[in-house]
Amino acid sequence: MGSFVIKLGGSLIFDENGALKAEYLRAFVRLLRDVESRDRKIVVVVGGGAAARSYISVARDVCRNESALDQLGILASRLNASLLFTMYYDLPPVIPSSLEELVRLYHSNLPVIFTGGFQPGQSTTTVSALTAEATKSQLIIATNVDGVYTSDPRRDPNATLLRKVSIDQLLDMFSQPQKAGEYRLFDMMTLQVIKRSKINTVVVNGNPPDNIRRAMEGLSVGTTIVFP
Amino acid sequence: MGSFVIKLGGSLIFDENGALKAEYLRAFVRLLRDVESRDRKIVVVVGGGAAARSYISVARDVCRNESALDQLGILASRLNASLLFTMYYDLPPVIPSSLEELVRLYHSNLPVIFTGGFQPGQSTTTVSALTAEATKSQLIIATNVDGVYTSDPRRDPNATLLRKVSIDQLLDMFSQPQKAGEYRLFDMMTLQVIKRSKINTVVVNGNPPDNIRRAMEGLSVGTTIVFP
Amino acid sequence: MGSFVIKLGGSLIFDENGALKAEYLRAFVRLLRDVESRDRKIVVVVGGGAAARSYISVARDVCRNESALDQLGILASRLNASLLFTMYYDLPPVIPSSLEELVRLYHSNLPVIFTGGFQPGQSTTTVSALTAEATKSQLIIATNVDGVYTSDPRRDPNATLLRKVSIDQLLDMFSQPQKAGEYRLFDMMTLQVIKRSKINTVVVNGNPPDNIRRAMEGLSVGTTIVFP
Amino acid sequence: MGSFVIKLGGSLIFDENGALKAEYLRAFVRLLRDVESRDRKIVVVVGGGAAARSYISVARDVCRNESALDQLGILASRLNASLLFTMYYDLPPVIPSSLEELVRLYHSNLPVIFTGGFQPGQSTTTVSALTAEATKSQLIIATNVDGVYTSDPRRDPNATLLRKVSIDQLLDMFSQPQKAGEYRLFDMMTLQVIKRSKINTVVVNGNPPDNIRRAMEGLSVGTTIVFP
Amino acid sequence: MGSFVIKLGGSLIFDENGALKAEYLRAFVRLLRDVESRDRKIVVVVGGGAAARSYISVARDVCRNESALDQLGILASRLNASLLFTMYYDLPPVIPSSLEELVRLYHSNLPVIFTGGFQPGQSTTTVSALTAEATKSQLIIATNVDGVYTSDPRRDPNATLLRKVSIDQLLDMFSQPQKAGEYRLFDMMTLQVIKRSKINTVVVNGNPPDNIRRAMEGLSVGTTIVFP
Amino acid sequence: MGSFVIKLGGSLIFDENGALKAEYLRAFVRLLRDVESRDRKIVVVVGGGAAARSYISVARDVCRNESALDQLGILASRLNASLLFTMYYDLPPVIPSSLEELVRLYHSNLPVIFTGGFQPGQSTTTVSALTAEATKSQLIIATNVDGVYTSDPRRDPNATLLRKVSIDQLLDMFSQPQKAGEYRLFDMMTLQVIKRSKINTVVVNGNPPDNIRRAMEGLSVGTTIVFP
């Protein structure tokens, strides 16, 4: 089996009150222990979640600099990555803060690497796609829905889960102007990276974590992106 | 007027539910704008507060490595420092992560520098004392009590606020073994640094922030540490 | 006058044979000397141009890793930035390699900062928008056409230069799937950053360089992006 | 066998005239070769010794900044660490300068890591305790006395070597105010780190180096710290 | 077999028009794959070649700072090194920029390391000698002539290839003042490093690359430097 | 007045017993205070002196790696530079460890920069020439003889001090093979850098320090290097 990049959505690790979901985090760490192997590397890219949102919301009162606000979200995502590192290794965290640093760390002896955001103007989903591209890995996007739907399942009762979706279909779905509160699994840049490098990508519900294992083993779960 | 290091206790910027106190943060930033001056540098050292505690508490379930846990607290304190930088400058944060980096940044054009913890096994109060020592600054420790009391004011109704306290008296007060939940304004290492460099130090209630301005101007507020 | 970010298109500094245009580079450096001022910072973001293309084309024979190929382009753009630094300052080049480093350098005494690409999957035009956002600067995109046209002027004889164009119009124009050899002044990510931060942006022909000065002084030249 | 951190006291590597003890250094390096093993890491933390003292003493004439003076001692200890690295590996030295760098280097292929001080206000003994804590290693403190005595053996003829000593007993012994020339094996911070992480610690006379091997193998030598 | 440092002359990878020689580069990469082995490290030091010359020549019009100009050459050589890394590993390049960084990377898992120049005032041939010295490797200098001649073969029809040459003979040959366009395989500093560390050195024609393999295997090819 | 680089020979700061000369160091620091000015930068490059020699001599017993041994000398020279920084600024030292770092620090607010060696195989005198070249400064080489003599003044009673010496004459004098114990003020690389950039260079006896001031003011002292 080759290497994997797992994008762990921030929504999976915080509850609706903005508190860390300790039990989920422990279950995810156990899953990583199960799938860890000498023969491959795993990179986990964690989102910022509720921590990012609360810091950004306070700063926004007086700060109009979107780059600075994004940076707060990035730092929150690295704190989340550090938490997972600490829980996984029982050692002080080593978290790369750019693709260049990640690539260097990839040549060390760490079997699992944890990271968060890299740069303003860029989602952690894009980070996961860039990392999968740089390390020629498969990409598993673990989020809080079961995969890609025909429309927003939280608004449209007829929304159907797609087992397969072509990259061009996704580009169509997500290139429309964004409306407030709308269903946004992907941004354009992520899709463009996935497309240009034909990254083997599966979108799964990260809860329960076992879905991630299933995706790694090629079992049927979530939505698989296909290329023409 | 010389330079100042302000230790901003984590307790000042989070409410009892662990949420950031946006209004307090804005008031503190306004205070910094008032006291900023071309002729001096200000370094603000921020504690980790509730954010640090919540990450550490989740990790501790499976991680027994105190160094790793401290590191989570340090990262949380840097996130707090980044928030303040962002609110103060309306620019992406630049946060030193060691005394060496702080000293380098001190030679740049930034009039106010924000930082958090540096190293496991060391409180942010110690960081503020080390920074005051390295930069030959006065130290203002802003916390959630009005200064140093004869005993813990939350437990002892007869506790009296001390206007002045000698460094040796403090060393006596805080060298006793610590009991759970006890009143702990200082650790030994902070006091030792203050003592060896006779750092001009005032302990004030950071709320309202105007107390900090008063301490900077040498007006009567809080507790002043005196040397033999 | 505020600060400026100038994106200098790679096409401006190489001729059709892939050789550096020495005379143009000298003229651009003279322009920078003219507009330099104590009161503002200028950041110049240079593209990779023909140098980037020749390295990427050789590597692509055996390397399918788009991230690695992009990295070659980034290194070529930094070499171009170093050339300009050297010509401008007559000193060894200091070139930031990430937004974080650029922000740090922004607090130094250098009045003009030169940089190239930051990260795979991201154009130098995006770098210029992110830098303008982070430093709250106006953005001047200097390229080899006179501004934004209604259609590709190299293919359509009826193409008309737009003096003003709304950001949403641009998003429409550039969100369509890209065809080989097509007219591509912008990528989506650049436009999204410009939009979210309402960056004051002018697109000009960088040849002659005086167009850049005109844009900096608010004189009529090229195309100005307008916001609703 | 697990990993080990060895604190090598500066007093062991300089003679009374302040000259390096070449023969001792060679013997210590041979010992490291004997105990090196694929299955574990060894970190050697070296003190500054006479080199540190001579630089600090010259600087102190005109420099009152204790932080700056400590930094000279730290640089001297890193020079000592570099000497040992060079003698051990016959390669140019790679010396971490913070706990963070040390943790990164720990994931490389180097079986033995050499380091000196990290930060002003902190002894190299504290560095060794923090490193043992971060890497979950046993700690061997090699000094120029045979272990912990009931009182200062250089002053009190009735001083008795303790084979075992509880951490709380040590905290009592070393929390008293320090008098000039007094017997000071530990500082408070070292003991607090050892206590909070229950670090398996032995204090031995580093001369002959074989005592260190004995301590690593669990044989009776020096003083062992015990926990309640 | 021990480790090797291969100096790859810039002249080997550019044709007379200054274009990259794609076929040669692919052949060289294949050679590296053939000789790679778990048991040894290979460091490839690449020259700047035509890319370096073209950037330096443009800058020199207005920049008289030789240090700055050298820096452009160094950046060009790193771009060449990145190209080779990318072609060899199909991964984003990791290129050390000083001897210190190279030594650190030497302790990672990368079997082949690519680098360019380190510092102004120093040729990439000197870099290769310093690297061979630091890593105790054999040195193969691959250039565009067949080895060391009695005189410049491009000017003197009686020039004879030397199979062996003593280091002192070389020092004599290359200590004479340099005339424009003269035959310059070595600079003094390279020879001094080779001499002081008695580095096992062979000079070969890097074209065809198989000469390099022959030199690594100790077969007769090019010129071997001998020591008294 | 322009900028200056002062090479402070290690022989000036240690006595014949290898002890630091505290009085000389204080006098040199006072001199720097006298000549410091807002309008120019001063870089002081310090040699390793007796400290370097003692560490190298101990290591050489078991270490044959000249690169590693040089590195010990470099670290000793940085310790010397740190000592001077500390005495000059009464602040923790900031010491660049490469030409690149030095150039960055040159753009900070520090009026005087202290540094030591940069790289194995290179003397601190070469560092001073490279720094003068990069920063377009005048070079003052302060050593323990009165300037350049016609022959070694310690061996030849007829040796005469030269007030002026051409760079080519120096190249002749120092290109001869070196004999043990011989008079060696310059190495080839230093002279080549001085020559190629026609660096304004004066060699003076650094004791008394006032000679350095005289050289800075263009008064007659020591030996001036002249160019054809």
What would your notes on this structure say?
The structure is a homohexamer of 228-residue chains. Chain A has a single domain, classed as Acetylglutamate kinase-like (Carbamate kinase, 3-Layer(aba) Sandwich), CATH 3.40.1160. Chain A is 42% helix and 14% strand. The first copy, chain A, has helices spanning 22-35, 49-60, 66-89, 99-106, 124-135, 167-175, 188-196, 210-216, and strands spanning 4-8, 42-46, 112-115, 138-143, 164-166, 201-205, 223-226. In chain A, strands 3-2-1-4-6-7-5 form a 7-stranded mixed β-sheet, with helices on both faces. In chain A, β1 (4-8), α1 (22-35) and β2 (42-46) form a beta-alpha-beta unit. In chain A, α2 (49-60) runs antiparallel to α3 and α6 runs antiparallel to α7. Chain A is globular, with a radius of gyration of 17 Å. Chain A starts with a strand and ends with a strand. The mean pLDDT of chain A is 93. The interface between D and E is small, with 7 and 10 residues.
Task: Outline the secondary-structure elements.
6 copies of one chain form a homohexamer.
Chain A: E1 4-8, H1 22-35, E2 42-46, H2 49-60, H3 66-89, H4 99-106, E3 112-115, H5 124-135, E4 138-143, E5 164-166, H6 167-175, H7 188-196, E6 201-205, H8 210-216, E7 223-226
